[in-house]
Design goal:
By secondary structure, the protein is mainly alpha-helical. It is 39% helix and 4% strand. The protein is built from six helices and three strands. It has helices at 2-10, 37-50, 111-117, 119-126, 141-144, 153-187, and strands at residues 83-84, 89-91, 104-105. Strands 1-2-3 form a three-stranded antiparallel β-sheet, with no helix packed on it. A hairpin with a 4-residue loop joins strand 1 and strand 2. It is globular. 22% of the residues are buried.
Length: 196
């Protein structure tokens, strides 16, 4: 990835964004290619610090933001997001875009009522970390919101361990990492990594 960012810089690209593999669509079939969250976040932060004077990678700093002070009760599904497929069918989120998870259609006469009253959304909104066995006693439950509600229990347990490592790193190291990127940004002249 470092060589790729170097190539982008040499070609004059102004900004770069990279996302970890998402567990939806074909990503479900290749879940083993997904980097652990903490390793991915650390790699993006290191790249952002190294190339700070050359290319905008500000997305990486999002991984260093301290947890919000808002109590998060679930992943957010049913509370402000819906996905629409090419046929106009509405789904609770991009991970749940499959048969049996449809909420309605984008051409419904009253989308607000549909969003408010659709049984699949009501069911998902009712799920909260205080009622989840794995989450009930977790110190990070109101930060992560219990993870993705579309996950299997096995995936949830595995991802829970990843999120705990990540949240501890953000809380303990986040401020120092943000300062490292800012310092690199201030002291690196533009295109300093380019060959003459």
């Amino acid at each position: 990835l470092d060589e790729f960012v170097g190539f982008l810089v040499s070609e004059g690209v102004a900004a770069f964004h990279c996302s970890n593999l998402q567990g939806c669509g074909r990503g479900r079939e290749t879940e083993d290619l997904k980097a652990p969250l903490l390793a991915y976040a650390q790699a993006m932060v290191d790249l952002a610090a190294k190339w700070a004077g050359d290319i905008d990678m500000s997305f990486a700093e999002n991984y260093l933001k301290p947890p919000r002070r808002v109590r998060k009760l679930n992943c957010g599904v049913g509370r402000g997001m819906v996905e629409v497929d090419a046929r106009g069918v509405l789904y609770p989120c991009y991970v749940l875009m499959e048969q049996g998870c449809e909420v309605g259609r984008a051409d419904a006469p009253d989308l607000a009522a549909l969003f408010r009253d659709a049984p699949p959304l009501e069911h998902l909104r009712a799920a909260a970390v205080d009622s989840m066995d794995l989450c009930r006693e977790c110190e990070f439950r109101y930060i992560c919101g219990g993870g993705c509600l579309a996950q299997t229990p096995e995936d949830h347990k595995r991802n829970c361990l990843e999120y705990k490592k990540y949240f501890r790193w953000v809380i303990m190291e986040g401020a120092a990492e943000r300062a490292r990127i800012q310092k690199a940004r201030e002291h690196e002249p533009f295109n300093s990594h380019q060959e003459d």
